[in-house]
Design a protein that fits this description.
Blueprint (H helix, E strand, L loop, with lengths): L22 E7 L13 E8 L10 E2 L3 E2 L4 E4 L10 E9 L8 E6 L3 E4 L7 E10 L14 E3 L5 E7 L13 E6 L11
Protein backbone atom coordinates (compact mmCIF):
# COMPACT_ATOMS: atom_id res chain seq x y z
CA UNK A 1 0.00 0.00 0.00
CA UNK A 2 1.52 3.35 -1.01
CA UNK A 3 2.23 6.00 1.57
CA UNK A 4 1.26 9.68 1.43
CA UNK A 5 4.68 10.98 0.40
CA UNK A 6 4.83 12.51 -3.07
CA UNK A 7 7.45 10.69 -5.22
CA UNK A 8 6.89 12.35 -8.62
CA UNK A 9 6.50 16.07 -9.28
CA UNK A 10 3.66 17.43 -11.35
CA UNK A 11 4.43 17.39 -15.04
CA UNK A 12 6.48 14.19 -14.67
CA UNK A 13 4.79 11.07 -15.88
CA UNK A 14 7.40 8.42 -15.10
CA UNK A 15 9.98 7.34 -12.56
CA UNK A 16 12.60 4.61 -12.37
CA UNK A 17 12.80 2.10 -9.56
CA UNK A 18 15.91 1.10 -7.74
CA UNK A 19 17.69 -1.93 -9.16
CA UNK A 20 15.45 -4.97 -8.61
CA UNK A 21 16.41 -8.64 -8.48
CA UNK A 22 14.67 -11.35 -10.48
CA UNK A 23 11.21 -12.14 -9.16
CA UNK A 24 7.52 -11.15 -9.17
CA UNK A 25 6.58 -7.55 -8.35
CA UNK A 26 3.45 -5.46 -7.91
CA UNK A 27 3.16 -1.72 -8.38
CA UNK A 28 0.81 0.31 -6.15
CA UNK A 29 0.07 3.89 -7.20
CA UNK A 30 -1.84 6.66 -5.40
CA UNK A 31 -2.43 10.09 -6.92
CA UNK A 32 -2.69 13.59 -5.41
CA UNK A 33 -4.12 16.79 -6.81
CA UNK A 34 -2.60 20.31 -6.48
CA UNK A 35 -4.77 20.99 -3.44
CA UNK A 36 -3.06 18.11 -1.59
CA UNK A 37 -5.97 15.67 -1.74
CA UNK A 38 -4.93 12.02 -2.06
CA UNK A 39 -7.25 9.48 -3.64
CA UNK A 40 -8.52 6.98 -1.07
CA UNK A 41 -7.66 3.83 -2.98
CA UNK A 42 -4.49 2.88 -4.78
CA UNK A 43 -4.21 1.62 -8.34
CA UNK A 44 -2.53 -1.82 -8.35
CA UNK A 45 -0.55 -3.31 -11.25
CA UNK A 46 0.95 -6.77 -11.19
CA UNK A 47 2.24 -9.17 -10.80
CA UNK A 48 4.95 -8.51 -13.35
CA UNK A 49 8.10 -10.53 -13.78
CA UNK A 50 11.63 -9.25 -13.67
CA UNK A 51 14.12 -11.81 -14.93
CA UNK A 52 17.76 -10.78 -15.18
CA UNK A 53 19.15 -14.32 -14.77
CA UNK A 54 20.29 -16.27 -17.83
CA UNK A 55 19.26 -19.91 -18.34
CA UNK A 56 21.70 -22.76 -17.71
CA UNK A 57 24.12 -24.04 -20.34
CA UNK A 58 23.68 -27.51 -21.84
CA UNK A 59 26.01 -29.90 -23.70
CA UNK A 60 25.30 -30.86 -27.30
CA UNK A 61 25.69 -34.44 -28.52
CA UNK A 62 25.79 -35.85 -32.03
CA UNK A 63 24.36 -39.17 -33.21
CA UNK A 64 27.61 -40.49 -34.59
CA UNK A 65 31.27 -39.60 -35.16
CA UNK A 66 31.40 -40.66 -38.81
CA UNK A 67 28.70 -40.62 -41.46
CA UNK A 68 28.29 -41.25 -45.15
CA UNK A 69 25.26 -38.94 -45.29
CA UNK A 70 25.02 -35.16 -45.76
CA UNK A 71 22.25 -35.11 -43.09
CA UNK A 72 23.59 -34.61 -39.55
CA UNK A 73 21.60 -34.74 -36.30
CA UNK A 74 22.28 -33.37 -32.81
CA UNK A 75 20.40 -33.24 -29.51
CA UNK A 76 20.79 -31.67 -26.07
CA UNK A 77 18.98 -31.88 -22.72
CA UNK A 78 16.56 -29.13 -21.69
CA UNK A 79 18.11 -26.05 -20.11
CA UNK A 80 16.87 -24.78 -16.77
CA UNK A 81 15.47 -21.28 -16.24
CA UNK A 82 14.18 -20.28 -12.83
CA UNK A 83 12.01 -17.27 -13.59
CA UNK A 84 10.45 -16.53 -16.98
CA UNK A 85 10.85 -19.97 -18.55
CA UNK A 86 12.69 -21.13 -21.62
CA UNK A 87 11.97 -19.67 -25.07
CA UNK A 88 14.42 -21.84 -27.02
CA UNK A 89 18.03 -22.17 -28.15
CA UNK A 90 20.55 -20.44 -30.39
CA UNK A 91 22.30 -23.08 -32.51
CA UNK A 92 25.86 -22.56 -33.73
CA UNK A 93 27.62 -25.03 -36.04
CA UNK A 94 31.21 -24.85 -37.18
CA UNK A 95 33.94 -26.95 -38.76
CA UNK A 96 35.95 -26.48 -35.55
CA UNK A 97 34.73 -27.09 -31.97
CA UNK A 98 34.22 -23.36 -31.25
CA UNK A 99 33.43 -22.36 -34.84
CA UNK A 100 30.38 -20.69 -36.34
CA UNK A 101 31.24 -20.82 -40.05
CA UNK A 102 28.25 -23.03 -40.96
CA UNK A 103 25.38 -21.75 -38.76
CA UNK A 104 25.67 -18.77 -36.40
CA UNK A 105 22.97 -18.24 -33.78
CA UNK A 106 19.95 -19.81 -35.51
CA UNK A 107 16.94 -19.87 -33.13
CA UNK A 108 15.00 -23.07 -32.51
CA UNK A 109 12.45 -23.99 -29.86
CA UNK A 110 13.44 -27.67 -30.18
CA UNK A 111 16.06 -29.68 -28.31
CA UNK A 112 17.28 -31.22 -31.58
CA UNK A 113 18.74 -29.85 -34.77
CA UNK A 114 19.29 -31.34 -38.22
CA UNK A 115 21.68 -30.00 -40.85
CA UNK A 116 20.90 -31.35 -44.31
CA UNK A 117 23.70 -29.98 -46.48
CA UNK A 118 26.95 -31.17 -44.87
CA UNK A 119 29.85 -31.39 -47.30
CA UNK A 120 32.35 -34.15 -47.94
CA UNK A 121 35.51 -34.22 -45.87
CA UNK A 122 34.46 -31.81 -43.12
CA UNK A 123 34.03 -32.23 -39.40
CA UNK A 124 30.93 -30.55 -37.93
CA UNK A 125 30.51 -29.41 -34.31
CA UNK A 126 27.38 -27.96 -32.70
CA UNK A 127 27.01 -25.73 -29.62
CA UNK A 128 23.84 -24.22 -28.17
CA UNK A 129 22.94 -21.28 -25.95
CA UNK A 130 19.60 -21.25 -24.14
CA UNK A 131 17.36 -18.15 -24.34
CA UNK A 132 14.63 -17.39 -21.79
CA UNK A 133 11.31 -15.61 -22.34
CA UNK A 134 12.74 -12.21 -21.40
CA UNK A 135 15.63 -12.53 -23.86
CA UNK A 136 18.43 -13.44 -21.45
CA UNK A 137 20.97 -15.61 -23.28
CA UNK A 138 22.92 -18.29 -21.41
CA UNK A 139 26.51 -19.32 -21.97
CA UNK A 140 27.51 -21.86 -24.59
CA UNK A 141 27.48 -25.41 -23.31
CA UNK A 142 30.20 -27.86 -24.32
CA UNK A 143 30.48 -28.54 -28.05
CA UNK A 144 29.51 -31.88 -29.55
CA UNK A 145 32.51 -34.14 -30.20
CA UNK A 146 32.27 -33.73 -33.97
CA UNK A 147 30.97 -35.66 -36.96
CA UNK A 148 33.22 -36.42 -39.94
CA UNK A 149 31.29 -36.44 -43.23
CA UNK A 150 32.64 -38.90 -45.82
CA UNK A 151 30.53 -38.92 -48.97
CA UNK A 152 33.31 -40.33 -51.21
CA UNK A 153 33.51 -44.01 -52.06
CA UNK A 154 36.87 -45.81 -51.96
CA UNK A 155 38.75 -45.78 -55.24
CA UNK A 156 41.76 -47.31 -57.02
CA UNK A 157 40.94 -50.85 -55.89
CA UNK A 158 43.78 -53.35 -56.47
CA UNK A 159 43.68 -57.11 -56.17
CA UNK A 160 46.82 -59.24 -56.26
CA UNK A 161 46.61 -63.01 -56.39
CA UNK A 162 49.50 -64.89 -54.76
CA UNK A 163 51.69 -61.81 -54.69
CA UNK A 164 51.06 -61.01 -58.35
CA UNK A 165 51.86 -64.45 -59.82
CA UNK A 166 50.20 -65.48 -63.05
CA UNK A 167 50.40 -69.19 -62.15
CA UNK A 168 50.28 -71.22 -58.97
CA UNK A 169 50.82 -74.86 -58.03
CA UNK A 170 48.86 -74.62 -54.78
CA UNK A 171 45.17 -75.12 -54.12
CA UNK A 172 45.08 -72.13 -51.77
CA UNK A 173 45.02 -68.67 -53.27
CA UNK A 174 46.15 -65.61 -51.33
CA UNK A 175 44.52 -62.33 -52.20
CA UNK A 176 46.22 -59.01 -51.61
CA UNK A 177 43.71 -56.18 -51.58
CA UNK A 178 44.28 -52.44 -51.72
CA UNK A 179 42.30 -49.26 -52.12
CA UNK A 180 42.52 -45.53 -51.58
CA UNK A 181 40.15 -43.68 -49.28
CA UNK A 182 40.06 -39.91 -48.89
CA UNK A 183 38.71 -39.29 -45.40
CA UNK A 184 37.54 -42.11 -43.16
CA UNK A 185 40.00 -44.91 -43.97
CA UNK A 186 39.65 -48.56 -44.94
CA UNK A 187 36.49 -50.16 -43.54
CA UNK A 188 36.46 -53.56 -45.24
CA UNK A 189 35.79 -55.43 -48.48
CA UNK A 190 33.22 -58.00 -49.51
CA UNK A 191 33.56 -60.80 -51.99
Amino acid sequence: RPDYVKDIEEGDNSTTSTKLASGLYWLHIRTRDNAGNWNLTAFHVGPFMIDVDAPSSVPATDEENLTGSPVLKWAWPPAADTHSGLAGYLVTIGTTPDGNDVVDGLFTANETYELDNATDGNFYYLRVRAVDNTGNVGDFGPSSDGILVDLSAPHDLTIRINGGANYTNTTKVTLGLGMKEKFSGFGGMRF
